[in-house]
Amino acid sequence: MSQTYRLSSGGRVDRSKVLNFTFNGKSYQGYAGDSLAAALLANGVDIVGRSFKYSRPRGIIASGTEEPNAILQLGATEATQIPNVRATQQPLYSGLVATSTNGWPNVNTDVMGILGKVGGSMMPPGFYYKTFMYPKSFWMTYEKYIRKAAGLGRSPLQNDPDSYDYMNQHCDVLIVGSGPAGLAAALAAGRSGARVILADEQEEFGGSLLDTRETLDGKPAADWVASVIAELQAMPEVTLLPRATVNGYHDHNFLTIHERLTDHLGDHAPLGQVRHRVHRVRAKRVVLATGAHERPLVYGNNDVPGNMLAGAISVYVRRYGVAPGRKLVLSTNNDHAYRAALDWHDAGLQVVAIADARHNPRGSLVEEARAKGIRILTSSAIIESRGTKHVTGARVAAIDTVAHKVTSPGEWLECDLIGTSGGYSPIVHLASHLGGRPVWRDDILGFVPGDAPQKRVCVGGINGVYALGDALADGFEGGVRAATEAGFQPTTGSLPKTVARKEEASVALFQVPHDKGTARAPKQFVDQQNDVTAAAIELATREGFESVEHVKRYTALGFGTDQGKLGNINGLAIAARSMGITIPQMGTTMFRPNYTPVTFGAVAGRHCGHIFEPVRFTALHSWHLKNNAEFEDVGQWKRPWYFPKPGEDLHTAVERECKAVRASVGLLDASTLGKIDIQGPDAREFLNRVYTNAWTKLDVGKARYGLMCKEDGMVFDDGVTACVADNHFIMTTTTGGAARVLQWLELYHQTEWPELKVYFTSVTDHWATMTLSGPNSRKLLAEVTDIDLDKDAFPFMTWKEGNVGGVPARVFRISFTGELSYEVNVQANYAMGVLEKIVEAGKKYNLTPYGTETMHVLRAEKGFIIVGQDTDGSMNPDDLNMSWCVGRNKPFSWIGLRGMNREDCLREDRKQLVGLKPVDPKKWLPEGAQLVNDPNQPIPMDMVGHVTSSYAFNSLGYSFAMGVVKGGLKRMGERVYSPQADGSVIEAEIVSSVFFDPKGEQQNV
Amino acid sequence: MLHIFCPHCGELRSEEEFHASGQAHIARPLDPNSCTDEEWGTYMFFRDNLRGIHHELWDHVAGCRQYFNVTRNTETYEILETYKIGEQPKVTARENTPATSAAVNERGENV
């Protein structure tokens, strides 16, 4: 029998469209327009999950974002699995597959449930902290089982087939929420001509107007909604975003909206459509019309399936045509909740009784219920419910809300549905994301947004304005204000007429008293998703957790995917009463984005796979691909790492490349090195100030190596700079440091020395650089250039202009390998043609392309540092044994000089860069390995340094390394030891860091 | 995400285009060599950690590449003014009155 709880008529569902779906493997039917929760209730599905800690059966409580229990796993295939979907917000589609996220072997017969009942009292708050703390190493073991038992859903094991994207938008007025206040605001703002975005998290616009029994202009409220939406749709500057949750209110009116474009259509998005979209909106003004959440009362066994929010009952009856029971008992402290009983009665169902906590309620809705003959028990409340898998009865007793006492034994009323309403909590989340603390108002028994510097207007329920007519007026006025402040003319217009009602104040009631007292009464749940009870909160305060943030963390109140939307205010009230303070004294916890969970797909957007982040290729990239290069990421660059020949691994390829460079000639793509064009009459002076060495005497046509320090005297970049003209230099930087160095130069020029006439331009991408290195590089280059390469005409550390491969080039005679080298720079778009000519000519010299790994090895053989590998931001030039590169007598106190003259920098036992030669020439010292003087010292040993670069495969024929050792420069020939994780010890001799050609005879020929 | 008015470009742009470079108005000592170690250490490492009005150095790094100063309230994240290097702030902690804030609005809304 299908849909036994579907009413014969009513609701906004399309009964002609039957949709099949499955829940926990069983097939059911619902209608188009249903939420998954509505369809489950229509089929009489009571239990949707098991609770977090006690494994109690749980049913649907609410109808929207605040739902704590109906958190389901969705997905018909492995790739489309989505965890923790609120059934109340998931539209039903044909073929939907849902399962409970917890419960073993299934939710109806749960093994843990029996344990929970027995063990419940043995799991006080802080149970996990108290129980699983020791031994520490066991946490990994505990965690696995705790997670399995907790049932928080699971992520898919296959790639998501759907695509997601971002959209950046600007608007004059962003309106959050499309209930009465939001729609009125949208009308006002839209009519003024402002660019408006109206976003609502529900499937349809209208909010509470979709299910209210109230009329507008004497007609169903939904008719007015339709007319407003039609008017807004006709406005060219208005964007309507249904199924779009505004999740974050960030600085300077930047809001993020999570739009679910196809979640209502099927298990995955139709071909060519985006599943979710994140709108990043900058709004001149924001109108928050987020409304309010109904607050449940806290009473014994209030978690048994069949206990629901009063308002949710109205939603299911009026919007979906579903009756989640037959016999209703309602417990309330306010007038509004009476609508649930009236709706229930109008649907032809039985209202057993209404328990009203107030002494003598006389509001219009109360009188309407009386007139229909509904039994009303005043000064009363449901103090506990009965039932295992579903409610079978409610115990109603007289209570004293001030003394917090039960004043009569009460009576058990037979029922299968309990409605509960403890008032309303304005949805202040977005209003509080930027730190604005909400303010308590006794008259509405709720927190409303406090003052905030943001340019926003709060309207309707969020302000505690609940009466329909007032909410419409408040919304319209707010819309006018927002549009006017955004620079548009105010508009006027008439709002639909509402029926005036006499309304009576509610009475403060959060936790309902029980004759047994909180600790002994049946469990009174405050946060159902985390199984936090009133007793647990009282215990936490008794144990000294008095700050609201501490209570939250100790009990897990408000931790779940619902972030305490239902439970938090009740929890605060209970903690406050337990400590004898007021709710405002207790205060709220911080509200943080996001308002509701967001899928990882939406967060990632298009930033997936090969477009996860930008990639930079050199002009020669396709040649590298053709020549079988393995690539290394250097910053965003793809650089050839090594060029393996068939059968070669990294080590054999690198050893071959190294030997080929030393024996004949090698080719490196050095295009990624940062290149900064520096021009201006003060360029030379500027270089004097930012480099450690002197630039005054560098003639045109010459090049020099320079070290750059920060003010603390520590090295942060290096490179060769060439003098193009007296007022023109080309600076090279490390590949990774290019942007940082340019920013650094600009910083000093703009903020410290604006009087210097000098200009910086990044030309990294404009030039391609091919380095020819090795004894045959001169002979090879001579075949493709018209430049005179004679050693006297073109000596070491100079540069020449001329043609290479038929195009204009700048050739620098500098060397990073210790070999005779030429760096050929040509305009990047000519590079491939030049390269082909060089390669053709290079055949007879066994020209060998090499990558970054061989470059690293060859420079290390020569003792050249790599900033960032051999330095770590705490090494000054002296530490690197590079005092030769420091001009201590330059007239201007250049950047780094004062820093490196600090007392600590002048110590002689600082860690200094040295060469390390393993005594066993086959042993490789791992980079980063610590060095000690005495390997037999008990742990913890005194560490004297560490390895920074280490290469076992090279042109030398033995393993060598560079490293830093305390006072190492005075310890040449001594031994240090590197204890390894496997217990072995590598012994190494401290040697000069220059392993190859210490006199420089190879590079200067 | 902050919305920052670049005084060089003359436009409000999103924080993504900018890079924060710490406290503003930290002048490099004119004669570093005459500084004691302590004075130099103070210049290099010590910065205010204010609650309220704070002057910061920003770089429009993905825009015009120019540095400029920002007066920002560290509590509310409001940006009260932006001004070029070499200029003095119009809004300071002592004189943070609406009258001085009016200068801000000459450059459009500082939303």
From TrEMBL, chain B:
InterPro entries found in the cross-reference section: SoxD, SoxD_sf
Transmembrane segments: none
UniProt-recorded name of the protein: Sarcosine oxidase subunit delta
Gene3D superfamilies xrefs: Folate-binding superfamily
Gene Ontology MF terms in the entry: sarcosine oxidase activity
UniProt-listed NCBIfam families: soxD
GO BP terms in the entry: tetrahydrofolate metabolic process
Native species: Pseudomonas cremoricolorata
